[in-house]
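Duplicate of earlier report; MFS transporter input re-posted below.
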Amino acid sequence: MNANVWLLFICQALVNASSISQVSISALVGHSLAADKTLATLPYALQMAATMAASIPAGIIFSRLGRKAGFYLGTVGMLVGTATFGLGVLQGDFLIYCLGAIPTGLGFGIGQHYRFAAAEVAAPNARSRAIALVMAGGVVSAILGPELVKHTKEMVSPLLFLGTYVAMSLLPVIGMVLLAVVKLPPPPPRNASPTPLRVIIARPAFVVAAVAGLVSYGAMNLIMAATPLEMMLCGYGVNDSTDVIRAHAIAMFAPGFVTGRLIQKFGAHRVICLGGLLTISCAALSLTGSAYMTFVTALMLLGLGWNLMFVGATTLLATAHDAQERVRAQAANDFIVFGTVAITSFSSGALHSSSGWVAVNATVVPPVLIALGLVLWHQTRRARLATA
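Output:
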């Protein structure tokens, strides 16, 4: 794998470290600042809504200015957002804290395109491995993010987590330095008669990839966002829930070192189906009790299931467009996926508050089953067409 892919690996790790740190504490900060406790996950929901909103302008920026300019804008957004989060904690103001989610989400949305950039700088026969490797940068994030929270949460006493946001502001700055070194392809040539977007998103491969992606991320996010709240209600401390999120994040990203090879050997469809079964296993295990190891094991199954489904979906997406269509197809896909994530981020807190932990876990099962049915249909259809 070439040096550019490894640099993108680190850039993705920095983006995800910031995100994992925010997942670990945003619901807790929101719960402490919001008068209405059902709004505890609102800041994270707004962040995911901004991530969704970033998809379309990111596509325009990448197509006109190139990948590097777009990624620079993303790092600036995350820096501004982190500073605003810190100001919200400093002032004890829930509104200011929520406002920080907007630039952070925009930056995170742009950062999701590192996996697409990896496919563009890798050789054609190594694209699935490059995508999986860059996403595996989350292994670094899974260690760095929670440790950053644990060691900085009381750094600016008595303001809990203010020191964490000060430390988090360094991550996008490091990303800017790395972007100055990495070599990325120029913008794709402009097509005088581009394929209509409605044609691209109507292709079976696009539909299946988008559904698998939105279900994998939506199911994972619904459970993950509510986990710190459930653990708090079960009597566990911040360090306990942070360690569970770390185990979950490691399970999300560590398989990236082998997921690409699994896809090369068994195909994206089978890998997506295995990920769906692991996600359902997480939901089933979560219903068995509130022991610490139950949370750890269930969230690790959830992370592993997400990785297999999401990397498989990203690989399948690459078959749904040509080089000139790629940026618009990728932007449309991420708009759909992170729109779902935004919905689950908000509904996670409301569902947990109104119906409890059992309802949160049970809700993910029907969408996963629908996605698996669609993937199996597409696999059968491709096999039939290949035979014909």
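The radius of gyration is 20 Å.

Merging into the original ticket.
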